[in-house]
Specification:
Layout (H helix, E strand, L loop, with lengths): L1 H7 L1 H5 L4 H24 L5 H23 L5 H9 L5 H25 L19 H22 L11 H20 L5 H11 L7 H21 L7 H23 L4
């Protein structure tokens, strides 16, 4: 029963510590930052490169600010990937997704309230291009979710401690790359919560399922691929490594002495 409670996350609800609530506030703030600044950038210009940088930098900043509280998921696709990999409990994942969506809605709503209607320019809402079908959009968003979640797992691999220092930048660059490659075709959501925020603000839910199914399926595939194939091997224990090094060093010294011994 204890193991079931742990997997489900009931132990976190019973805890008197504020860690879960702090994490949920962190996820809310992270998606609020993303939608406020990145969608705000979309109201100013049509240039895809400008938008790509805005989304990448927003994710970089959001993870830097709240990553220590929640892990800096800021995306349901990342959260579901972590759930599949057994890194978080079911209830924590569910709460994360709810607060991510609320944060995205709040961020886009703030943009809508603070600027004049003449500047809306769609408020950065994602939509399929004219000649892109829903299945094509699903495939594009699948690969976007795959790229992002693979980057998250690679950057946060516990057996690659050095990569953790650059994780926010690496994840932000993955978001930038995704936008540079596909923004013309689907709007490059990569993030169901981000699209919920703009869909709510614009009341446009056309093909909305694509922006949930695509990134989440990509995230699940990425979690399985990384944990089963790509995950770094554990570093040998310090004591064992030291003993192995000493053995090799002693052997080298012995050979050196034997090679220079004077037999006269």
């Amino acid at each position: 029963m204890g193991k079931f409670e742990y997997s489900l996350g009931l132990n976190e609800l019973k805890s008197k510590e504020l860690r879960l609530w702090q994490a949920l506030i962190g996820e809310f703030l992270g998606t609020l930052i993303l939608n406020f600044f990145a969608c705000g950038a979309c109201t100013q210009v049509e240039d895809g490169t400008f938008k790509a940088l805005a989304f990448g930098l927003s994710i970089f900043m959001a993870i830097t600010i709240v990553g220590h509280l929640s892990g800096g998921h800021v995306n349901p696709a990342v959260t579901v990937g972590m759930l599949v990999a057994g890194r978080i409990s079911f209830l924590r994942a569910l709460f994360y997704i709810v607060f991510q969506c609320l944060g995205a809605i709040a961020g886009t709503a703030a943009v809508r309230i603070l600027i004049d209607r003449d500047y809306y320019n769609g408020l950065g809402h994602t939509s399929l291009a004219q000649n892109i079908t829903e299945l094509q959009g699903l495939g594009i968003e699948f690969f976007l979710g795959l790229l992002l979640v693979l980057t998250v797992f690679g950057a946060c691999d516990p057996h690659k401690p050095d990569s953790r220092y650059t994780a926010p930048l690496a994840i932000g660059m993955a978001v930038t790359l995704g936008h540079l490659g596909t923004i013309r075709y689907t709007g490059a959501s990569m993030n169901p919560a981000r699209t919920v925020g703009t869909a709510f603000a614009t009341d446009n839910w056309t093909s909305h399922w694509v922006y949930w199914a695509g990134p989440i399926l990509g995230g699940v595939a990425a979690a399985l691929i990384y944990t089963q194939v790509l995950e770094a091997k554990p570093v040998p224990k310090t004591a064992e490594a030291a003993d192995k090094y000493r053995t090799h060093a002693d052997e080298r010294e012995l050979r050196k002495l034997e090679g220079t011994r004077d037999y006269a």
